[in-house]
Design a protein that fits this description.
single chain, alpha/beta, Rossmann fold, 4 domains, six-stranded parallel sheet
Length: 880
């Protein structure tokens, strides 16, 4: 199992399949789901709120629901390994751990069978999915987004079993429970299309169980409840004491349905119920559990889900047992007594001791998060044979050299010392920190101590601790923190830029958890956090990184000395504008009244293209050409009956099934011939039958409107003085560059810095700015996230969605004409998405009396495109 288990885990193969077939898959979703995804897709919506990993996880969430119909992971894996169902064609190829495409057979049957048995061992009675996103990527927001999506679709399709009508959110402990309040306070309009927010808001009823004495008030069989609790407030327990008189009193009360509900936490069923507590081993189920069993279509969401699997998961996986934790028992009991749609587990890593969790469906690891700048970079140091006071003094000195006197989004950078005991924090660490601050001339008022003891940590300290990330607060002024036991999940401080841990804690994983506290992103520029550890703790960190993230401590340092750096890009006034024509297409569906039956002309249909082609070479002993043949027996086609054929056509055309049947019965080809052909060649249904019947019954008429529009090439940034871009220095040209003359600079720079993606782009700019044929030229290709308005809408043939395309350059020539310019790598010229962009841009440019030109990279690097006469004839022409 080593190959599939660690080198190329199944969740990587599943994402590869989805990513490769995204357009085809998303085209089969319902219209509401398409709108929801489009609103959150950063490609389609430049203002989308979700980060790329969050959106990718949402895509996988929707894929499993609407394409795989909530299938269990073991069922999906079995289809994939057998190349059946939706995987019958695409899964001949897989992807290895480095992202390289490989033939399916790089994984042996023995490997897949071992993993299949493991998955089957851990299989539950309900679908169970694990989403592994590393700390700092926003699992809580992702969870909220998924719940909002569920409720919207449940409202739209109330009879469907696919969607959750209620959500139960579990946190492992009180600390994480508090962080889940964000589900309640989160602005839904950031992830829900605005037109649906008002409809969603009044539906949702939130129940936050932060007090063990609070009764859960939900109406039986009601919908759209979100119940947030830690496991201890729902979990089933065993009775461990004899009944006292008060207990017997409440048992009598519980027989009354009204009083039993009122005294919920101790209420029991009637005496004839199988749940009646009869002896010491009987389960006590609290009122909250009873209430939850009366909610239908329940979705269970587990935060920090590695707690769900127990401390000995790695041993359990290797020996193949299916041991359960108390939380899993509680979820299983819920599934037995009400309808659980699925259990969605969110965790920070797909690994436990390098072993992938068996039901992970999406993962975005710590290494990728650092490399792609979703987290801070890190600089870990281990100190050996060093005294405690020297360790503390050095940490504070280096930290202050790096960050002293700076602010980030109005927040002061913080350094946190983690102590193993209260005595260490108060009697050793604090005096050392005070002495080190005095050496730097810093006041001791910058110290905050939070050890969980009310005698030492007062209410004011707690308030300051909670306001560390609040600009202008007293808490923000505290820059040197001394903490005990606060490094675990649930404590987030974006302004934390360093951690220090000298003594080794009892829990080795605490070293990893505490270190990761300082990696949360702040500002749009990636910063580097400092990690000061004893050498023993550094070795522990390395081991825990390997165990939990399948990476080494060197990977934690991100990209190391990256060749790209951050640039502050400012708008250069006055605003540059361009008058263009905006083309609006209107489509009208006209219903026909056909007098003749529909004719699919199946008799003359070329069916060869639907057959599987086999290329054979008779022998390798001598050079011999391959022979090709077609084999109908290899077609993996689903047989249709009259009933299923009519249902499929009716679903696509949104017609009444009886009307579809009437037209197919009366067709020239006849129902029998149609069913026979479609059963043998499934593609005919979607290529011929459905389009043929649509064109028979309706006509699509299109009209075009052209409006004048003035677009701004670059807008001022919101709530900031500049934009931030990263680029390699050799690809950057600034307004102060000595490489350009004064006259050349006067032709360009609507932004003071141009960050090019490639050498051909830079070369194109230099050729245009130096040419006497050019009056002005502006690089617009870097502003693709709504900073500018020069964009063209086009139809993406892969996703089947309308997207925005931003050309690379706008040039005004000395003869008064304009050019829209695109630079593409030679290997991308014939890409169908590139052609779709070019076709849309050409339409708008032509209507605006602008020339659209696409240059290949090699043409720009080998020739001057504005002066070479021979080359001017080789400019790529776009089909009109």
């Amino acid at each position: 199992m080593a190959v599939l288990g660690t080198e190329a885990p199944f969740f990587s193969q599943l994402w590869f399949y989805y990513d490769r077939n995204r357009g085809k898959i998303r085209s089969r979703y319902n219209s509401l789901t398409k709108k929801f995804l489009a609103y959150n897709d950063p490609v389609e919506n430049p203002d989308a709120f979700l980060r790329q990993p969050q959106f990718e996880a949402l895509e996988m969430y929707v894929f499993l629901k609407e394409f795989m119909h909530n299938a269990q992971v073991v069922e999906i894996f079995d289809q994939w390994r057998r190349r059946e169902g939706d995987f019958s064609e695409a899964s001949y190829y897989g992807v290895d751990k480095n992202g390289a495409v490989t033939l399916f057979n790089f994984i042996t049957e023995e490997d897949t069978e071992a993993l299949f048995k493991q998955m089957r061992k851990y299989r539950e009675a309900y679908p169970n999915y694990i989403y592994a996103l590393t700390m700092g990527l926003g699992k809580t927001i992702l969870m909220a987004t998924c719940i909002f999506y569920e409720f919207l679709l449940a409202k739209k399709y109330p009879k469907s079993d696919l969607y959750c009508h209620n959500a139960l959110v579990f946190a492992p402990d009180k600390t994480v429970l508090e962080s889940l309040r964000e589900i309640i306070t989160f602005d839904k309009s950031k992830v829900v299309p605005p037109e649906y927010v008002k409809a969603l808001e009044p539906l949702i009823k939130v129940h936050f169980l932060d007090d063990s004495g609070v009764t859960l008030h939900v109406l039986d069989d009601s919908d759209f409840n979100i119940v947030i609790s830690n496991t201890q407030k729902i979990i089933t327990k065993r009775k461990r004491k004899e009944d006292k008189p008060a207990d017997l009193f409440f048992q009598d009360i519980a027989k009354d349905p009204v009083l039993g509900d009122l005294y919920g936490p101790t209420a029991l069923e009637a005496p004839d119920s199988p749940d009646l507590v009869q002896d010491e081993k009987s389960l006590i189920e609290n009122q909250r559990f009873k209430k939850l069993t009366r909610l239908k279509h329940l979705g269970v969401y587990v935060d920090e889900a590695h707690h769900l699997f127990g401390a000995d998961l790695e041993k359990e996986i290797r020996k193949g047992s299916g041991a359960k934790t108390s939380l899993r028992d509680t979820i299983n009991l819920l599934a037995e007594r009400t309808s659980v749609v699925a259990c969605y587990n969110f965790t920070g890593t797909p690994y436990v001791k390098t072993q992938p969790l068996p039901e992970v469906v999406y993962a975005y690891g710590l290494r990728e998060a650092i490399q792609n700048e979703y987290l801070k970079d890190a600089f870990p140091q281990g100190f050996e044979d060093i005294k405690g006071e020297v360790f503390v003094r050095n940490a504070i000195k280096e930290f202050w050299q790096d960050y002293g006197g700076q602010t980030f989004e109005g927040l002061n950078p913080k350094l946190c010392f983690f102590a193993t005991t209260i005595e260490e924090a108060t009697q050793e660490l604090r005096p050392m920190v005070e002495a080190a601050l005095a050496d730097l001339g810093l006041p001791s008022s910058k110290i905050l101590v939070n050890v969980g003891d009310a005698k030492i940590t007062k209410d004011e300290d707690i308030r300051n601790f909670n306001e560390l990330d609040v600009p202008g607060s007293t808490g923000n002024e505290k820059q040197f923190l001394i903490l005990v036991g606060k490094g675990r999940e649930g404590w987030n401080c974006r302004s934390l830029f360093g951690v220090a841990m000298f003594r080794s804690p009892k829990s080795k994983v605490f070293v990893l958890q505490a270190t990761m506290r300082c990696l949360r992103q702040i500002t749009e520029t990636q910063h580097r956090a400092r990690v000061f550890l004893s050498n023993e703790n550094l070795e522990t960190l390395d081991a825990e990184l390997q165990s939990n993230f399948n990476m080494t401590i060197n990977d934690l340092k991100g990209k190391g000395e990256s060749t790209s750096i951050a640039y502050e890009v400012r708008v250069v006034p006055p605003p540059r504008t361009l008058a263009i024509k905006e083309i609006t297409h209107h489509y009208e569906l006209i219903e026909k009244d056909p007098s003749e039956p529909v004719n699919f002309d199946l008799e003359h249909l070329d069916l060869e293209k639907y057959l599987v082609k086999v290329h054979e070479i008779a022998t390798l002993r001598r050079e011999q050409a391959a022979k090709s043949r077609t084999d109908a027996s290899l077609n993996d086609s689903r047989p249709f009956s009259e009933l299923t054929l009519v249902a499929e056509v009716a679903r696509y055309l949104n017609m009444k099934a009886l009307d579809v049947k009437r037209h197919l019965d009366a067709s020239v080809d006849g129902m029998g011939k149609t069913v026979e052909t479609v059963s043998t060649y499934n593609e005919v249904l979607y290529d011929v039958i459905i389009p043929g019947l649509f064109n028979h019954l309706w006509e699509v008429r299109s009209t075009q409107e052209i409006h004048d529009r003035e677009v701004v090439l670059l807008k001022d940034p919101k709530d900031a003085d500049y934009y931030t871009f990263r680029a390699k220095p050799e690809l950057v040209i600034t307004q102060d560059s000595s490489a350009l003359s004064k006259d050349e600079k006067s032709k360009t720079f609507h932004a003071d810095t141009y960050c090019f993606d490639s050498k051909p782009e830079r070369e194109c700019f230099l050729q245009y700015v130096a040419s006497d044929k050019v009056e002005e030229v502006y690089f617009t290709g870097m502003f693709t996230s709504g900073q500018g308005e020069l964009s063209v809408q086009y139809y993406d043939p892969d996703s089947q969605r309308i997207r925005s395309y931003y050309p690379d350059f706008l040039a005004k020539m000395t003869d008064g004409s304009y050019q829209l310019i695109e630079v593409k790598g030679d290997n991308k010229i014939d890409d169908r998405i590139v052609k779709a962009k070019a076709e849309a841009a050409t339409e708008v440019a032509t209507a605006s009396n602008i020339e659209y030109i696409m240059y290949a990279g090699s043409q720009l690097t080998n020739t001057n495109v504005l002066t070479d006469q021979d080359f001017s004839d080789s400019i790529l022409e776009v089909d009109q």
